[in-house]
Amino acid sequence: MVLAALIGLIVVVEYRDRLHASSGTAGDADARMLLPVRVDQLGAIEIADAGRLHRFERDAKGAWFYHGVHTGAESGHTHTADPALAERIERAFAAFGRTRIERQFALERDGAAYGLATPEILVLVYGPNQAQPLAQYAVGHVAPDTASRYVTLVGSRVVTTIASYQIENLLALTRAATSSSTAR
């Protein structure tokens, strides 16, 4: 009877954990993940690299497209997704959505030692049809282990390390999107 009760308890705990993991609400965000919500709950992502802003948005059908930055004089351009680029954007952001926090520690002084005082890269994530970002990340230097990168949530006093390839993938995406938009 004790064995049956133990098996029943294990089944209940496993079922509850799976139910909780699949609920998918913003309040259930995994604390080990960098992003505050799943990528499918985002409407736009901006990547500022060395002063140049790259904006990626979802169209009405949910496909990603490269928006870039434009002025009011360019109001005639369209916001349509290039299928090949949309697939590449989707893959890159799906991978970025799986970014796990490796380490966290208190930010000392202004973060200059980590490249966070005046970061060259910023990543902003937006909910659908939202003007204010859900989160803004300052991306700093590559860590001494050369496999990690320093990141902080703007306004936070905590430094986080993530896998460096996640940021390299985003930068490769911005280069691909820029070359794709200039080729048209």
Give a description of the structure.
The protein has 184 residues and is α+β, with helices and mostly antiparallel strands. It has two domains: 1-29; 31-183, no CATH class. Helix content is 30%, strand content 25%. The protein contains three helices and eight strands. It has helices at 2-21, 83-97, 164-183, and strands spanning 44-49, 52-58, 64-66, 103-106, 121-126, 135-142, 148-153, 158-163. An eight-stranded antiparallel beta sheet has the order 3-2-1-5-6-7-8-4, covered by helices on one side. Helix 2 packs antiparallel against helix 3. The longest helix has 20 residues, at 2-21. It is globular. The termini are far apart.
H/I helix tally: 3
Give the helix level as a range of percent: 25-40%
Mean pLDDT: 85
Tally of strands: 8
* Count of the separate structural domains: 2
> Strand order across the biggest sheet?
3-2-1-5-6-7-8-4
Radius of gyration: 20 Å
Order of helices and strands: HEEEHEEEEEH
Strand content: 25-35%
Biggest beta sheet summary: 8 strands, antiparallel
Distance between the termini: 71 Å
Q: Which stretches are poorly predicted, pLDDT < 50 over at least 5 residues?
A: 23-27, 70-78
